[in-house]
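From the shared-data thread, chain only:
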Amino acid sequence: MITQITEQEKISKTVLKGLTLKELKEFFEAAGEKRYRGEQVFEWMYGHLIDNFDQMENIPKYLRKKLNSFCELITLKLHSVEESKITGTRKYIFETKDNFKIESVIIPEAKRTTLCISTQVGCPLDCKFCATGLMGYKRNLTTGEIFDQFLLASKDYKLSQITNIVYMGMGEPLLNFNNTLKSLKIFSEEKTRGISLKKITVSTAGIPHKIIELADSQIGVKIAFSLHSLFDETRSKIMPINKKYNLSSNLEAIRYYVNKTKTRVTFEYVMFNDLNDREDDFHALVKLCKSLPCKVNVIPFNSIAHMFPTGISKELKPSPKQRIEEFVQKLRDKGITVTVRFTQGDDIAAACGQLAYKFENN
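Structure, as tokens:
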């Protein structure tokens, strides 16, 4: 029974935010309650986006009282919001219970509004073009912290306007695999409000065995692969993870994912001047794209000067606009689907690759 909880457990409350439907049913059953109470709480948390037990109207008063005593729902609090005066891009800074800051971004476009969420406090991969990589790494986010970015942003921005979610914020989602997968399972439930899995994309820098594991999970979410070069030497220079998991192993895993899930992969391609925008790069990219269902998302390199980079990070420059336009047009002439992620929110350091929050007191 819930009443049979130790004094230590009273101090350390059970966090229900982040539990899947199956886990919530099991929790209430173990507490001596009916399993359907788990369904009710699930719907309040993830369907109605309620973070207060007292507002769960179909939960008996005695049970709400116990839940207030021994459980909690809130994992993040909103620290601050910045909005671009140019594009309307909105950057959210959230604070965790252990006083770390993470960032999420809402990107409004003509036909969609995308929420970009984080999966880690910082990132351990040290990609040379990414501000998050320069800030270091502290820990994985919990499943509840991943979902609460959606909940809090939805309450601020209006849920009905958020049409898509991308796991492309701080961190490498596949290095926080279990919590990323649990959050996707929560989004996949009919009782969860607002977002279909068809509108969710998980981005990865390339962890081959985890790409395969995600495929085998049968969750069927879209995947985006941070490609940026078809040459191992170049890719290793800007993405150290490539030294451990090279292109060959990653592309083999991507092919498995595409075949297993019957989806097409998105290749993310940040363009750097005289590094990956040459003729050889173009031909290599065309060859790859002809070999499997895919589209290419071309991204102009966004400055990370606000992180005071050194070494190669300081040397990287964006490809000239005309060269990007020519590169994109040549890809399209070859029948390849290409989108260009035009810079949005760089005036508030919220554009692709710019998310970072310095660890001030931790």
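The two ends are 38 Å apart (CA to CA).
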